[in-house]
Design a protein that fits this description.
The protein has helices at 2-11, 29-32, 36-39, 44-54, 84-88, 127-136, 157-160, 162-171, 175-182, 215-219, 229-245, 247-252; strands spanning 59-63, 76-80, 114-118, 142-147, 185-190, 193-194, 260-261, 265-271. By secondary structure, it is α/β, with parallel strands linked by helices.
């Protein structure tokens, strides 16, 4: 506990060029993260990929931990999260997150058996610096759960709000850039998204289009905060019309019963 308290205090000095709530990336989670946990719950199917890749690691660092999604509870975990809003939403069964950024991790070399970063690398100001820091403090596997920007337009959302897809594709780093940053040997694993996915990133609703009519569900996906609000209003109006007329189901109705969607979700596992 003394070590943990020391690190929390040390983390304060790494606060530079942040949003008011401490968010260190391009999205301000003080605004968009208020109800994040309501919409973004860890999905068991996706979690199984992460658990498998962690192997027998006993100590794990979670970087850009947010509200704690996918953080294992059967291992010793230290979480790093710069956003005050997201740290406040961590459930009580998880430890307090340290206020620090990926680019400057306040830990010794090889301090952890494994490290992980889920839905966060597209937020980092310096991808290569963040990945180098994760590798520095990790003796075993480094896991990155993210989306392949070249596959985002395979989702039906591209028919209704291509602007959201375009801005996401511009923010997500390429698979090759992440692999280069991790160094060593890297496996890139496609992660199929289940129909009832409880983690409400956009593709999670591939077979439940009505869910994306909820403004809160859209707000829990940072892409919508980078486009004109009028685009979101147009999206909701056009999707509502097509659902009512049956046009969406004519085009995509098979997705309502499709068990998995193989979209852009990827798990990269880097070994030293």
């Amino acid at each position: 506990m003394l070590f943990f308290s020391y690190i929390v205090k040390k983390g304060n000095k790494f606060m530079t060029d942040r949003h008011q709530d401490g968010s260190a990336g391009d999205a301000n989670y003080g605004i968009i993260g208020a109800n994040y946990r309501r919409y973004r719950q860890p999905d068991p199917h996706i979690a199984s990929f992460i658990a498998g890749a962690l192997g027998n690691a006993r100590t794990v660092l979670n970087v850009g931990a947010g509200a704690g999604s996918y953080e294992p509870t059967d291992r010793s975990v230290i979480a790093v999260e710069p956003s005050e809003s997201m740290r406040a939403q961590r459930p009580t069964h998880l430890s307090q997150a340290i206020d620090a950024t990926a680019e400057r991790l306040p830990f010794a070399n090889k301090a952890f058996d494994a490290s992980m970063a889920t839905f966060t690398v597209h937020q980092w100001k310096d991808l290569q610096a963040g990945l180098a820091e994760m590798r520095r403090v990790t003796s075993g596997p480094v896991l990155v759960l993210t989306c392949d920007p070249t596959q985002l337009d395979t989702f039906w959302l591209n028919d209704y709000a291509p602007e959201a897809i375009t801005v996401e594709a511009s923010r997500y780093p390429s698979m090759s850039a992440i692999a280069a940053g991790l160094g060593g040997s890297v496996d890139i694993l496609p992660v199929p998204i289940p129909l009832g996915c409880t983690d409400g990133f956009s593709e999670a609703y591939y077979g439940r289009p009505e869910s994306l009519l909820d403004p809160g569900a859209r707000l829990a996906n940072s892409a919508w905060s980078f486009i004109d609000p009028a685009i979101g209003e147009r999206f909701a109006e056009n999707l509502s019309d097509d659902l009512q007329s049956g046009l969406w189901d004519q085009r995509h109705g098979h997705l309502r019963s499709q068990p998995f969607f193989e979209g852009s979700l990827r798990l990269l596992v880097g070994q030293p």
